[in-house]
Write a structure and sequence with these properties.
The structure is a homotetramer of 217-residue chains. By secondary structure, chain A is an alpha/beta fold. Chain A folds into two domains: 107 residues, Aldolase class I (TIM Barrel, Alpha-Beta Barrel); 65 residues, no CATH class. Helices cover 40% and strands 16% of the residues of chain A. The first copy, chain A, is built from ten helices and eight strands. An eight-stranded parallel β-sheet of chain A has the order 2-1-8-7-6-5-4-3. In chain A, helix 1 runs parallel beside helix 10, helix 5 runs parallel beside helix 7 and helix 8 packs parallel to helix 10. The longest helix of chain A has 17 residues. The termini of chain A are close together. The mean pLDDT of chain A is 94. The interface between C and D is large, with 42 and 42 residues.
Chain lengths: 217, 217, 217, 217
């Protein structure tokens, strides 16, 4: 099985505005060359620009569980979809939501036919998130985020535990992923792919970093 | 003096995506015809699309007090500026921020040369917001939002009190504004303009509503 | 089976300070007379006063998922336990928590041997909350809170759906409960009891209201 | 002038429950012996126990800007006052509030005759907080909290700047305070006293730490 690579652009200088477009282009090329699906997750303000120029799945970093109405400053599913987004992260560790909001965000995204990835921090919250019926859950142990130590190596039990707790909902794993062998390990532990950020976006050559990531396939 | 009209698109169906573009076009025409400055405030995901197509000042509905870095799902000043935004609301009643965040958001926006409008709910918070040195404060008594009763009529003392409390920082007023006479009253009470939303966005003919709004000038 | 009555004091004048003590006394008498377990849930600042004077299970309205440390203004499990609390609500509709916080709060409470009741708003979040393994989940459809219309009558399917989704975790239901027949209906729908507030605390005679509540047993 | 010492108990094991009572007793003795006013700020659940047993001003760590009503899990001014609290921190760095909430909390506290201390993180937010007319502002530069480096030494300009920005509202300073000379420096920079926590609560002998703190007077 080919893994899914979800590349979170966060708010790094290297992945904002023009740089975001460039990074998305690199991701598209690597995806085309390798046959691996790479999803790019730019800042919300950059979604339209990227989806307009590049044929690659673009996801949002956040969505709110709202409907049309008076919700200044919030992120509306229908607006994301119209701008070209095809999915969204929900409850990322840097943008946690209340339990009822996670559910409402997941439902709002589905209403607009957006694929949903609910992020979680441990096995218990993975079980809870999976019970809300998203398309994916993505487990990222907070102590490993940005550590450079891949979760698949540091704590394989949390990954296999998450896969079991998800009861059939597809699982991604994140935190510390930067090499092809990390992706391979993630797949071998039962996940469908990885969620990563700085390992690629802040690499000296992001395209090369992506190529290395998919090289094992 | 000509008033400033700040038109908040919120997340209404009538002001999302294609509809947002259409509404911005109407605003541009009314602004050109009347000589009144109209600022449009679409959802963040719609900023690029509008600023790319229409010559009109576009502001964001929200900004976070962050710098480049790991801030998934947050709104970065530099990303807004690159996408064409020229200013931003801060602390809107539907997206309130912590005190330290209001300050940080105001500083982040200035760093990217974005004009700042801090929203407030009463005279005391207007005084506090103005002391942070934004370009504007916008007072909106929460009990009047969406009421159809203009703050300039229902509670003129809160407007004059806000102007006094702002100590030279320019003041906008909002809540219940929908007619030219409301704008006129706001100016006579010492403000520089108005912040409004549903009175225009949900009007049967938004362009006509904008024309009526600027007709008294 | 005898139902469990959980009486949330909220922050009403009728259930603050001396009034809280009086209400807890009434609850104790009704519990003794009827053999029904009544749990009182006063404000956190009133827990010590009540637990010191009255032999009745006292729960907290909120707990934070923290450990000993620098957490000014937060609610620590061990401090609640030392003050006499024997359990706690988590994620009440008026004090919603992030998903990871619900999990952490539930774990913190267990660490201090406090019984946990996670509050939820619909079937999906009940399933998610139950998967975190609390002692109870309490479903309260937000549209019925304070309505005077009992959830057991207005929407029995949401109650039976919650009982099924909870997969063996005990379920309470709330919103609109004020009479003995509401409690009876709740039990017949498969719950272990009810969570209620204003139906008793704001009754002309709270003791009589409690007596009516347990009269059907 | 004699300084004001505000001792935040946070949620440390050393200052919870029975330990909180013991620490408050030590504070009382040092206050009596030295003539310096020491205010103790225990966890909310410990306020009643301490105020019942010891004659010392007890403040809350947090208060919500609410009135009597349905506010489960929130902190009500009148309940604090009935339990013996005589003042409260507002917007502590570990429990930040939205701007409108800071104002509402300050007003709620005044309504119940509680002395208010609004905490701030820099000169700008000190100016904003002071404009809300609390009894005190307490500036704590976040980078120095728990550092052991007293703000009065590391950054005296931020203290004098805060005193100036407060325009007559009394100022406390915090972060890194642990010795008598830090208190002395704080007073010389124009403040009325200090807000401190771990320097005393986690000292091997808290009473001795407090004696050292007031020794310079």
């Amino acid at each position: 099985m080919k893994p899914l690579i979800v590349l979170n652009f966060k708010t790094y200088a290297e992945s904002t505005g023009e740089n975001a477009l460039r990074l998305a282009m690199a991701a598209k090329q690597v995806a085309s060359d390798s046959g691996v699906t790479i999803i790019v997750v730019p800042q919300i303000v950059d979604i339209f620009y990227i989806s307009q120029h590049i044929e690659i799945p673009v996801y949002a970093q956040h969505i709110d569980g709202i409907e049309f109405g008076g919700h200044t400053g919030h992120v509306l599913a229908e607006a994301l979809a119209q701008a070209g987004a095809r999915g969204t992260l929900i409850n990322h560790s840097e943008r946690r939501l209340k339990l009822a909001e996670v559910d409402a965000a997941n439902e709002a995204a589905k209403r607009a036919h957006l694929t949903t990835i609910i992020c979680t921090n441990n096995i218990a919250t993975t079980r809870a998130a999976a019970s809300l019926n998203p398309d994916f859950v993505a487990i990222e142990p907070p102590e490993l985020i940005g550590s450079g130590i891949p979760v698949s190596k540091a704590n394989p039990e949390v990954v296999t535990g998450a896969v079991e707790a998800a009861k059939g909902i597809k699982v991604l794993c994140g935190a510390g992923i930067s090499k092809g062998e990390d992706v391979k390990a993630a797949i071998e532990l039962g996940t469908d792919g990885v969620l990563l950020a700085s390992g690629v976006t802040k690499a000296p050559d992001p395209k090369e970093a992506l190529q290395n990531l998919v090289a094992f396939v």
